[in-house]
């Protein structure tokens, strides 16, 4: 029996050893596979990194070492006129100001519309209408609670500051990356009074929350075969760690200590798959390089994983043949040190990308320096030529005939009050000759100005966005003209703002929403909600928006139908925000307003009712004045017609009286007088027609003569 037990124990030990060996083989296979896949993405991104280095040199106003060597060899100016930096900084500042307002968030959450609620609200039964209203109010309350929960996560993670860094990356290099939600361990500190000693002691509580990170573009290696993040199957993220940070990885839960130890022992100097560009970046900015810094590459992989690979890394999973597993793997070199299942049930990758200008063929876009590459080259070249021409044309070129004079001090350089000795072989007026180099400053400067205008055109960033004036016609000096110019200049930023809304805001908030739906214990925040990105809503200038909101309030208040369909609290909140006043400091919160409405029987405030009554009275008075004006116009028209008829009758009567008096004087009958007047009238008409015919004939003859003269004939025949 003892022998049998010993044999069974031996078999179990051998089975365990075989199982461990198989798991190590799977881990080694996984590490080798991910190591090779990461190397492929690094190689595919080399061309982009070369472009980014050029963008950085252009942003910092630096020539490449080869360009500087050629300039020194040619003896030309090496000055660099940097028009790229202002453009890029203007784009960063303007985009950050629009996307990250201080008094509002650039996103929101609202309940998903349900057709059934609309049917219930439109039904004739009061019970169903009340039920639909209660369901809708409950959904809106949950949406507000979810919005507050995500907003709290963003505040804890310093979302605005990291979003500005992302915007800076996208404007400079063309691509900015935001990562979230990520699990972070935060410490909360609180002071409490000890009951026994009476002294205040500090308590430190640790909690795991959803956070977010800004990922440097240099450390982001997505699936390079994909054109968008939706098409990307996986993502690699690189982190450069020193030896101390590598050892601290052992404190993370789930880390495989043996694999981490192997990684440190097998390569004590640090293992690198990609190129470390820090020395090149320091050289561009003029910082001394650090040659003795050892860094290990910790790679973070997000994407599909095999079931056996996850099990080998110690991950507990439900073995379902129909399930595609998505997870995260940390590895150094070919050593996998940790693996985990993707915390999001949707399997979404926790990375969002913003491009200043999108590239339809790549996840990475184009930044401002790349878009104005050629104008910057023209501007720098033109300014170098200006400097070279200014140096040459500053003074004349002197030609000296050595046979005519010799310098007394033996030096042929010109200097003030220098003494020359004549040789007597050549007349002194022929000893020196001065030749002036033509100054082309005006022509060269026009080229420089054209380069600046070309930069405005190619980047769609006018000078107005840089705080400089712009010529927009006579009306541009007025307040309305400047507002129009500001609104027109904002149009060029709509594409970048929409890219941010689509690429980062909607996707990031959606993932945080999924996180809370899956892991939050607060049922009052859970529901079916829609994500709304509001970055593009601030494109209208605040002053213009304020005027439109005030006009909208007047229109709504003047019409009872409009007033009933207007959300007055929301409208007033938008008016306050348009005045750049913090709405939370001057307005009541929505819960307080709702409570006061219920206490007042959900009636409209008396002040608003009085204002609406005054508006209705003014509207009725305006309509009455319009009707009265129409009546007055009709009455005046009738009076004018009557006066015209009366005057016509008086003239006719006076004519008949005059004719009777004339007939009496000439002793004629009225018939004879009328016949005589008819003959005289016909004669006068005949004379008029004859005179008109003679005038027409004279004009025709003159015109014919002019035509003959134009054709070269001397007479008219």
Q: In short, what is this structure?
A:
By secondary structure, the chain is of the alpha+beta class. It is built from 23 helices and 14 strands. Among the domains are: 396-435, no CATH class; 540-603, no CATH class; 668-717.
Total number of helices: 23
Low-confidence stretches: 470-477
Shape: flat
Q: What gyration radius follows from the Cα positions, in whole Å? A: 44 Å
Q: By helix and strand content, what is the structural category?
A: alpha+beta
Question: Strand percentage, roughly?
Answer: 5-15%
Helix content: 55-70%
Terminal residue distance: 153 Å
Count of β-strands? 14
Most strands sheet: 5 strands, antiparallel
How would you write the strand order of the largest sheet? Answer: 4-5-6-7-8
Quick check: average pLDDT?
Answer: 80
Question: What would your notes on this structure say?
Answer:
The chain has 717 residues and is of the alpha+beta class. Among the domains are: 396-435, no CATH class; 540-603, no CATH class; 668-717. It has 23 helices and 14 strands. The protein has helices at 2-44, 46-60, 65-74, 84-99, 115-122, 126-156, 159-173, 243-248, 257-266, 278-285, 307-312, 368-371, 373-393, 441-459, 479-491, 494-519, 542-558, 560-564, 568-578, 583-586, 590-599, 606-665, 670-711; strands at 107-111, 175-193, 200-215, 220-222, 235-241, 296-305, 325-332, 335-341, 351-355, 397-400, 405-407, 420-422, 432-435, 529-533. The strands form five sheets. The protein has a five-stranded antiparallel beta sheet. It has a three-stranded antiparallel beta sheet with strand order 3-2-9. The longest helix is centred in the C-terminal third of the chain and has 60 residues, at 606-665.
């Amino acid at each position: 029996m003892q022998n049998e037990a010993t044999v069974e124990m031996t078999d179990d030990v051998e089975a365990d050893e075989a199982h461990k060996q198989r798991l190590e083989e799977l881990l080694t296979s996984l590490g080798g596979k991910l190591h090779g896949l990461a190397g492929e993405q690094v190689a595919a991104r080399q061309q982009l990194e070369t472009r980014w280095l050029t963008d950085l040199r252009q942003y910092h106003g630096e020539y490449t070492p080869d360009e500087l060597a050629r300039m020194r060899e040619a003896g030309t100016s090496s000055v660099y006129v940097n028009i790229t930096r202002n453009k890029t900084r203007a784009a960063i500042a303007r985009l950050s100001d629009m996307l990250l307002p201080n008094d509002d968030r650039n996103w929101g959450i609202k309940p998903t519309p349900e057709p059934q609620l609309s049917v219930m609200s439109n039904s004739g039964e009061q019970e169903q209408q009340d039920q639909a209203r209660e369901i809708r109010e409950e959904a809106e309350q949950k949406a507000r609670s979810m919005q507050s929960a995500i907003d709290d996560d963003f505040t804890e993670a310093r979302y605005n500051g990291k979003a500005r860094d992302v915007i800076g990356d996208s404007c400079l290099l063309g691509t900015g990356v935001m990562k979230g939600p990520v699990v972070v361990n935060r410490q909360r500190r609180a002071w409490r009074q000890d009951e026994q000693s009476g002294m205040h002691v500090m308590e430190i509580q640790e909690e795991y929350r959803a956070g977010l990170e800004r990922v440097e573009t240099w450390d982001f290696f997505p699936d390079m075969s994909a054109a968008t993040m939706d098409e990307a199957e996986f993502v690699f993220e690189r982190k450069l760690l020193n030896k101390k940070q590598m050892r601290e990885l052992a404190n993370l839960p789930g880390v495989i200590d043996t694999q981490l130890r192997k990684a440190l022992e097998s390569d004590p100097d640090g293992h690198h798959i990609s190129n470390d560009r820090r020395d090149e970046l320091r050289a561009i900015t003029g910082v001394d390089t650090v040659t003795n810094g050892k860094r290990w590459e910790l790679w973070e992989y997000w994407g599909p994983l095999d079931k056996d690979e996850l099990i080998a890394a110690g991950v507990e999973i439900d073995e379902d043949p129909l399930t595609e597993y998505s997870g995260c793997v940390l590895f150094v070199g070919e050593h996998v040190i940790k693996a985990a299942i993707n915390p999001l049930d949707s399997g979404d990758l926790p990375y969002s990308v913003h491009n200043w200008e999108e590239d339809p063929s790549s996840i990475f876009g184009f930044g401002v320096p790349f878009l104005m590459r050629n104008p910057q080259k023209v501007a720098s070249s033109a300014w170098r030529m200006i400097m070279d021409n200014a140096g040459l044309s500053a003074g004349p070129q002197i030609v000296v005939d050595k046979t005519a004079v010799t310098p007394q001090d033996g030096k042929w350089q010109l200097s003030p009050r220098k003494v020359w000795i004549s040789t007597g072989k050549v007349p002194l007026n022929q000893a020196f000759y001065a030749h002036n180099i033509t100054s082309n400053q005006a022509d060269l400067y026009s080229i420089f100005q054209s380069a600046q205008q070309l930069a405005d055109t190619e980047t769609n960033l006018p000078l107005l966005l840089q705080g400089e004036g712009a010529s927009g016609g006579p009306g541009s000096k007025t307040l309305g003209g400047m507002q129009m110019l500001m609104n027109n200049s904002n149009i060029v930023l709509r594409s970048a703002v929409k890219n941010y809304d689509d690429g980062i805001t909607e996707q990031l908030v959606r993932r945080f929403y999924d996180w809370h739906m899956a892991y939050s214990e607060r049922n009052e925040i859970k529901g079916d909600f829609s994500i709304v990105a509001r970055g593009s809503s601030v494109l209208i200038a605040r002053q213009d928006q304020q005027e439109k909101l005030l006009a909208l309030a007047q229109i709504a208040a003047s019409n009872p139908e409009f007033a009933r369909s207007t959300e007055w609290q929301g409208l007033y909140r938008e008016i306050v925000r348009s005045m750049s006043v913090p709405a939370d400091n001057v307005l009541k919160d929505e819960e307080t307003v709702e409570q006061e409405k219920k206490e007042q029987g959900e009636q409209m405030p008396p002040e608003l009712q009085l204002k609406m009554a005054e508006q209705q009275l003014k509207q009725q008075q305006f309509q009455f004045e319009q009707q009265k004006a129409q009546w007055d116009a009709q009455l005046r028209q009738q009076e004018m017609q009557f006066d015209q008829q009366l005057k016509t009758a008086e003239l006719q009567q006076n004519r008949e009286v005059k004719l009777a008096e004339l007939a009496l004087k000439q002793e004629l009958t009225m018939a004879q007088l009328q016949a005589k007047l008819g003959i005289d009238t016909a004669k006068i008409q005949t004379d008029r027609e004859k005179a008109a015919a003679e005038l027409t004939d004279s004009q025709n003859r003159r015109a014919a003569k002019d035509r003959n003269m134009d054709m070269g004939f001397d007479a008219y025949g």
